[in-house]
Design a protein that fits this description.
The protein is of the alpha/beta class and about 375 residues long. The protein folds into three domains: about 5-195, Rossmann fold (3-Layer(aba) Sandwich); about 200-270; about 285-380, Arc Repressor Mutant, subunit A, CATH 1.10.10.10. The chain has helices spanning about 10-20, 40-45, 50-55, 80-95, 110-125, 135-145, 145-160, 175, 185, 200-215, 225-230, 235-250, 255-260, 265-275, 305-315, 325-335, 340, 345-360; strands at about 30, 65-70, 130-135, 165-170, 195, 285-290, 295, 370, 375-380. The strands form three sheets. Strands 2-3-4-1-5 form a five-stranded parallel β-sheet, sandwiched between helices.
Length: about 375
Amino acid sequence: MIGPLIDPASREAALRALFARLRFSEAFCVNGVNDVGKTTLLALAQQPAVIERFAPPELHQNQLFVHIDCNLLAGAGERELYALMLEETRFAAARAGRPIDIPPLPEEPLLAAVAMEALLGAAVERGLSLVYLFDEFDDLYRRMEARAALALRAYENKFGPRLAYVVAVEQPLRRVRGVGDTSEFEEMFVGGMYELPPLQREHAEALVRRHGEQRGYAVPEWLPGALADLTGGHPGLLWAACAAAQRLHPATRDAAAAQVSDSPEYKIELEHVSPRPGAPAEHGLVVDTTNGEVRINGAPPAVALGPTEYRLLQSLASRNGSLVSKDDVARDVWPREQRLGGVDDARIDKLIDRVRSKIEPDPKSPRYLVTVRGLGYRLLRGA
């Protein structure tokens, strides 16, 4: 759903980082919250036009990208993994006009591992460089046998200049598995971890306009900015917001913010974006009002928050992503001062800037504490 709406230029930084690793056949791990666009990024990386535009010349020929959808694996057995890799390699090679004859896979896991190694050797002998793109890798990695992960590392050791892995996960690999029995596998990704951020504002607004063009409805001039503010640029939330706006036809910017955020489309996607129960670690911003703590990706901010800064986050977090006006901020943060007498806009703006400098990866392009121009602020958990 999201993929066709994403302009490759909106993911230029991620694509260049990925291709820079593949240039030297080095492993790459992209992580990010649900529906932030990891699958779309892997799809873009395979497109000839994208490779021509963003990849170094060394990657323009003889690269065989093999997409592995880990959701297709009912189990996490070693042989099942090899079977899927072989089948997808056969399909990718045939589609590229470089067919490879692949014999049936033995049932015994050890012999299956040998057969997998033989396939990689045959592909390399044909002049191909293989890139395996493991999409939705989280659950598989948590459940897979350590021997399978170490076999993948052994293949990389043998065919390294012509073999590379890319994995897409919600959390960094060390958090996904939580044990050290596959540390040799994880070593391949040192220096190649990339957290995929939401879309920058200009690209988020362009996505809203493309949604309207593709579905044949008129997009008011103010709607792209309104939905970009509401979603923080998260692609999945943007798509849901666009679908809700198409159905509801809000008449004003305020109506769009209220109606879309209360729509079933948006609520369902927002729940999907949030970390699932039992997830190995937190992701995004958490304001724990019970313990008086603020955590970003499970860790406290590098620079501690002061009491006034915490009261601001507490005020915004209590609204669960809803719009908070400057008047409400003033009453919650400085309850003893009169709004007009002692708390002016400049004072609030300075507080917002201080908090962003402590919680945002890029304060100039905030993903957690977002401004709704002329109206107030929203606090987003991780979108």
